[in-house]
Amino acid sequence: MAAVKLTYYLEILSSWCSYVEPVWTSLQERYAGHVDFAWKIALMNRSDFPVSRAQCDWFYQRSGTLTCQPRMLNSGWFDAQLHGNYEAPNLVAEAGRDFGLTDDRLRRALTAAALRDGRKIGDMGTAVTFAARTFKLNGRKLRLAAESKPVRERVAADTAEFHAHQINQRPAFVLTDAIGDKVIFSGLVKTEPLTATIDAMLADCAAYTTFAAHFGPVPDQ
What we know:
Layout: E1 4-10, H1 15-30, E2 35-41, H2 53-66, H3 87-95, H4 105-115, H5 124-135, H6 139-146, H7 149-164, E3 172-177, E4 182-186, H8 191-215
Parallel strand pairs: 1-2
Antiparallel strand pairs: 1-3, 3-4
Helix pairs in contact: 3-4, 3-5, 3-6, 3-7, 4-5, 5-6
């Protein structure tokens, strides 16, 4: 087990989470073997979603400009009939773990289908069909898993864990280490603060290891 763990809380349809994915990739490459990486679903509230495509496009124009994106995101995924209930792609992404898709591929594919191609994956049937075809899975089994009590409970637990950190912005990154330190970033999409923090935590853990090698555990008295 690595000395530092980095947990990434995300929502499949979050534009800001889509923007931070290159950062997540670069961190995994830079700290491979030194940091344990994990992602968890943190569902957005229904009221967090736009109420129209026009409003969604306005948000994309703002966030895309602020982050210097080369192309604007696609609001075609918006579905007024769902009234802000977009759990489906998140449940499908979580269910993918039960089929061996524990890495980033499935959740990223679902995000791209929505925010790049405008697919209405807020609908469970659409999300399942897309995932099953893309990754050659049994669609019936995947849907049963996505709608199952265990998967819903895992997503609910991870979302509650996210809120327990007293944060409300996604992406969120929680760093913990072997000596009990914890650092939380909420809404951050830049690499530098994360790498500076990871480097500092790794250095501190290494220093504790060196000290223990020279002086052993703390005396009982």
